[in-house]
Amino acid sequence: MPANPPPDAPMTVDSLDEPLPPFDEIGADLVVRSGALSGVAGKVTLYQIPEGEALLRFEGLRARSAAGVDVWLARSLEPGAPHVSLGALKARAGNFNYLVEPDMAPEDYAAIVLYATAEKSALASANLR
Known about the structure:
Order of helices and strands: EEEEEEEEE
Largest sheet: 5 strands, mixed
Strand content: over 45%
Shape: globular
Number of strands: 9
Low-confidence stretches: none
Distance between the termini: 25 Å
CATH architecture: Sandwich
Number of helices: 0
Strand order of the largest sheet: 1-7-4-3-2
Radius of gyration: 13 Å
Helix content: under 10%
CATH topology: Immunoglobulin-like
């Protein structure tokens, strides 16, 4: 799977349909958390994959813009909550994946934030349950 784009990377495509990697067995036991996005259409799912890494997947994303938007994995949706940037949003629409570093404990993160860096505000977010 390709590496995550760096934060503030320019968006190169409007729509992307990246497949879910072929895990040996895709089942509910691989899902750590999931949730519906608010502010844009779509949902996100956080998987613990067999290689010890985690994977964040966007499905059915439809956003009005993606330029200058970073993907944050956050401990909560509270302002100032600890977060990690997974890189720039790959596309304005579609289905795509982000690798989560193996040293991060995915179960410790309860939110996704699409952060518009120029506006210094959230474009969208999701509580992960």
